[in-house]
């Protein structure tokens, strides 16, 4: 039996990382149980991981607000300075297909800013320990050297036309990938250089990944260059740019030119 964890004694970053990692293990156990059909697996995993995360956060941080993709929204969060924003399974299709490009997001926005976050990639076991990979705001790593040819991660099922146009303008290689969290972490891990999304998202899709990306020194903004703000009444957040700092202005200028020409 695992020793009890005093979650109230953990720092916010430690708590985010611990919960994301445990939720990832729960999701793997749900999938490996063999109980669910392919059609039912996504819902079962989402709901199971969500219940764990919601109850754990209410136990550990009872005074904080909470926004989860799998929970009914609550107006009470709007009056909170500290709001946890979680996505129990980002990339449900990839999770069901036992791919590596799905994630668990646990993040904390303070006064609307993405301050604390952890992104678990349970299907990507970089260490060989069998525990997957967790990237977090309190344990950063140096970015790998940038290659000569740029690489841009895009949706593996429906690449946004704007992102494809920017990739063409940069002569960048397209790297199809599943979840938003996996795409953002790919830039940190050196699997890509740019993640540009313009096809519509919600706050839980990007909050934790943005917090982690910013902690690693990456540029994070809307595609018009404006800041990303969270814990809004309308949780729809349509676009996102995460990239190495040296590419940001070039990408933003291309987006502006493409939009002007459209």
Summarize the structure.
By secondary structure, this protein is of the alpha/beta class. It is 37% helix and 21% strand.
Describe this structure in words.
There is one protein chain. With 262 residues, the chain is of the alpha/beta class. The protein has two domains: 7-136, 2-Layer Sandwich (Fructose-1,6-Bisphosphatase, Chain A, domain 1); 151-261, D-Maltodextrin-Binding Protein, domain 2. It has helices spanning 12-32, 38-60, 92-96, 161-170, 180-188, 203-215, 245-261, and strands spanning 65-68, 82-90, 103-110, 113-121, 133-136, 151-155, 173-177, 194-197, 219-221, 240-243. The strands form two sheets. Strands 1-2-3-4-5 form a five-stranded mixed sheet, sandwiched between helices. A five-stranded mixed sheet has the order 7-6-8-10-9, sandwiched between helices. Strand 3 and strand 4 form a beta hairpin. The N and C termini lie far apart (59 Å).
CATH fold title of the largest domain: Fructose-1,6-Bisphosphatase, Chain A, domain 1
User: pLDDT average, as an integer?
Assistant: 94
Strands across the major sheet, in which order?
1-2-3-4-5
Q: Helix amount, in percent?
A: 25-40%
Q: Any idea what the radius of gyration is?
A: 18 Å
CATH superfamily of the largest domain: Fructose-1,6-Bisphosphatase, subunit A, domain 1
CATH architecture of the largest domain: 2-Layer Sandwich
- Contiguous low-pLDDT stretches (5 residues minimum) are none
Oligomer, anyone?
single chain
What order do the helices and strands follow?
A: HHEEHEEEEHEHEHEEH
What form results from the Cα inertia axes?
A: globular
What can be said about the biggest beta sheet?
A: 5 strands, mixed
Main CATH class of the largest domain:
Alpha Beta
Instruction: Give the N-terminus to C-terminus distance in angstroms.
Output: 59 Å
Q: Let me know the number of strands.
A: 10
How large is the share of residues in beta strands? 15-25%
Query: Number of helix segments?
Result: 7
The structural domain count equals 2
InterPro entries: CysQ/Inositol_MonoPase, Inositol_monophosphatase-like
Pfam family, one: Inositol_P
Binding site for Mg(2+) 2: 90
Cofactor: Mg(2+)
């Amino acid at each position: 039996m695992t020793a009890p964890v005093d979650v109230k004694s953990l720092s916010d970053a430690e708590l985010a990382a611990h919960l994301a990692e445990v939720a990832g293990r729960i999701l793997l156990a749900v999938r490996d149980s063999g109980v669910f059909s392919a059609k039912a697996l996504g819902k079962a995993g989402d709901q199971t991981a969500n219940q764990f995360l919601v109850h754990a956060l209410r136990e550990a941080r009872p005074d904080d607000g909470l926004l989860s993709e799998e929970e009914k929204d609550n107006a009470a969060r709007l009056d909170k300075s500290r709001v946890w924003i979680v996505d129990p399974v980002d990339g449900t299709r990839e999770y069901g297909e036992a791919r590596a490009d799905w994630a668990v997001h646990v993040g904390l926005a303070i006064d609307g800013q993405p301050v604390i976050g952890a992104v678990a990639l349970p299907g990507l076991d970089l260490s060989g320990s069998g525990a997957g990979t967790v990237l977090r705001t309190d344990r950063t790593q140096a970015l790998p050297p940038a290659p000569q040819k740029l690489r841009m991660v895009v949706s593996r099922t429906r690449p946004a036309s704007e992102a494809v146009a920017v990739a063409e303008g940069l002569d960048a290689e397209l790297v199809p990938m599943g979840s938003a969290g996996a795409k953002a972490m790919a830039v940190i891990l050196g699997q890509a250089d740019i993640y540009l999304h313009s096809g519509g998202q919600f706050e839980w899709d990007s909050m934790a990944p943005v917090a982690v990306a910013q902690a690693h020194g990456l540029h994070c903004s809307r595609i018009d260059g404006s800041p990303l703000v969270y814990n809004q009444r309308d949780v729809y957040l349509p676009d996102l740019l995460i990239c190495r700092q040296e590419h940001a202005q070039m990408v933003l200028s291309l987006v502006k030119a493409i939009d002007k020409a459209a």
